[in-house]
Amino acid sequence: MSTRVKSIGTRNESSLHKTLKFQYTGPGGKTEVETGEFVADGVRNDGEYIEVQTGSFGPLRKKVTELAKSANVRIIHPIAVTKKIEVYDPKGKLLYRRKSPVRGCIWDIFDALLSAPCLPLVKGVAVEIALVDTCEKRIKDGKGTWRHKGISKHDKELAAFHKSIVLTKKADYLKHFVPFKKGEEFTVSLLAQKAEIKTDSARKALYVLTKMKAVKRIGKKGNSWLYIR
């Protein structure tokens, strides 16, 4: 493979990423396909590019924009509804397992979109949220961050696949993330209340949706910004 090709590669690829890559590429498709200066995670048999992105969409901006010039691109973003954590010793013996108190939801997509809010507007680009359960493997090896007390993250696996939500146009984002009628004014706190999410999540969502021009900021009411669809 040419040294000029830009790719994260598969050496540090998690089991979760690998499983979804093959699942979405599907029968007859190919994985790790070199195209121009980039390597696509997969290409389906209908020609659509597949990119599995577990983190921020920022690193995908140039790559996806270039890929979309020649074919449709589907960005798969897994969100863990529940996460189980398993901790092993360096020899592979299971020490204990526990369930993480953190639960994911579709609104977490805006954490990924913060650094690339206009990427979904690129012609031919679709975002697919995959709601899953995951199992995170950790090793008690004396390394890792101070927060994890000498425990390093080793791998992340797909435990269960619940459903997916496909976002291809502004109307899809309005349907799933703006529970207000056209012309109805609302604030960050009103969105948080109606959607039953944290204020910080509502703030991130409206930042991205404003950049996408799915909603519009029209002024202030007291100290709060006002938005409309």
Features:
9 strands; Arc Repressor Mutant, subunit A; 23% helix; disordered N terminus; alpha+beta; single chain; two-stranded antiparallel ribbon; 229 residues; Trna Endonuclease, Chain: A, domain 1; seven-stranded mixed sheet
CATH top level of the largest domain? Alpha Beta
Radius of gyration (CA) equals 20 Å
Order of SSEs: HEEEHEEHEEHHHEE
Q: What would the principal axes of the Cα set say about the shape?
A: globular
What portion of residues belong to β-strands?
Answer: 35-45%
Could you tell me how far the N terminus lies from the C terminus, measured between alpha carbons in angstroms? 47 Å
CATH topology heading of the largest domain: Trna Endonuclease, Chain: A, domain 1
Give the assembly state of these chains.
single chain
Instruction: Give the helix tally.
Output: 6
Number of domains: 2
Summarize the amount of helix as a percent range: 10-25%
* Strand elements, count: 9
Described by strand count, sense and barrel closure, the largest sheet is: 7 strands, mixed
Q: Structural class per helix/strand content?
A: alpha+beta
At CATH level 2, the architecture of the largest domain is 3-Layer(aba) Sandwich
Look at the structure and give the mean pLDDT.
92
Unreliable stretches (pLDDT < 50, length at least 5) are: 1-9
Would you kindly provide a brief summary of this structure?
The chain is globular.
Structural write-up:
- The chain has 229 residues and is of the alpha+beta class.
- It folds into two domains: 1-82 and 95-134 and 155-168, Trna Endonuclease, Chain: A, domain 1, CATH 3.40.1350; 170-229, Arc Repressor Mutant, subunit A (Orthogonal Bundle), CATH 1.10.10.
- The chain contains six helices and nine strands; from the N terminus they run H-E-E-E-H-E-E-H-E-E-H-H-H-E-E.
- It has helices spanning 15-25, 61-67, 109-113, 170-177, 188-195, 199-211, and strands spanning 30-35, 38-43, 49-52, 73-88, 94-99, 125-140, 151-167, 216-221, 224-228.
- Strands 1, 2, 3, 4, 5, 6 and 7 form a seven-stranded mixed beta sheet that branches.
- The chain starts with 14 loop residues before the first helix and ends with a strand.
- 28% of the residues are buried.
